[in-house]
Design a protein that fits this description.
Blueprint (H helix, E strand, L loop, with lengths): L1 H98 L1 H25 L5 H15 L6 H18 L3 E10 L2 E10 L3 E6 L5 E5 L4 E4 L5 H11 L17
Antiparallel strand pairs: 1-2, 2-3, 3-4, 4-5
Keywords: Coiled coil, Signal
InterPro entries: UCP028069
Pfam family, one: DUF3450
């Protein structure tokens, strides 16, 4: 009985040891599996961290770019605002000028009429150099003033231009053909004017010469002593001979 009990105890102990070894092996395997899972999870987590880091770097770079563009746009907007303000000042100035145009016209138009009247009176009292041409210019100015298609600025330009032409008559040496009314006789002549200092006329056959007396408002016959000089003066004005000293009848300045 005692041997049987011992054998039975031994068998039971052996089974117990075998069961313990099997349990320990299963646990170890489970640990390896869990450790593998942990490694895999850690690797996945690290990959996610790397991806998030890269994304954060890209977002940071985009943020810096947006900040730089914002600063540039702010500077540009300030510049454009300055230009707009300057343009607005120009627009305001033009508007003020436009608003005052009617007032300017009310002052300029009567002035131009007075200038034309004064020019006509001056021509009537002046030495009759190219008289028909000058009178025709005054008539054209009056026509322009009555033409609604001509702007006020263009009218004023033509009036000023007429005054400039009149000024040139006093500085030029000219010769031109025309007709002279002497004692009721119409004579074809070559006119010669030395500015407004002297106005002479030479018959086309070069046998007679006249001088304009602006005080008496008549033509006076020149003596034979001035005939040759008058012929030379006409030829000089037409650039047929070189300029030279001449003996001409010049009224002394008062």
């Amino acid at each position: 009985m005692s041997k049987r009990n011992l054998i039975a105890s031994a068998v039971v102990g052996a089974f117990a040891l075998g069961s313990s070894a099997v349990v320990s092996a299963d646990t170890l395997n489970d640990l390896h599996v869990e450790e593998s899972k942990i490694h895999v999870a850690a690797a996945n987590s690290q990959e996610k961290i790397n991806n998030l880091y890269e994304q954060s770097q890209e977002l940071f770079a985009e943020y810096r770019q947006v900040v730089d563009e914002t600063e540039n746009l702010k500077v540009y907007n300030d510049y454009v605002a300055t230009l707009v303000a300057d343009q607005q000042r120009g627009i305001d100035s033009l508007q003020r000028q436009i608003d005052s145009i009617d007032g300017i016209k009310r002052g300029v138009v009567p002035l131009m009429f007075r200038m034309i009247d004064s020019l006509e009176k001056f021509i009537d009292l002046d030495v009759p150099i190219s008289l028909d041409e000058r009178k025709a210019r005054v008539e054209r100015l009056r026509d322009v003033m009555g033409n609604s298609n001509v702007t006020t600025s263009e009218q004023f330009r033509q009036v000023i231009e007429a005054y400039q032409v009149e000024n040139e008559y006093g500085r030029n040496i000219r010769s031109y053909k025309g007709s002279l009314d002497y004692q009721g006789t119409n004579i074809s002549v070559d006119f010669f004017n030395l500015g407004r200092t002297a106005l002479l006329a030479l018959s086309l056959d070069q046998k007679n010469a006249w001088m304009w007396d602006n005080d008496a408002r008549v033509w006076q016959v020149l003596g034979d002593e001035y005939l040759s000089s008058t012929v030379t003066a006409v030829r000089m004005a037409n650039k047929l001979v070189p300029a030279d000293l001449l003996k001409l009848p010049i009224k002394a300045a008062e």
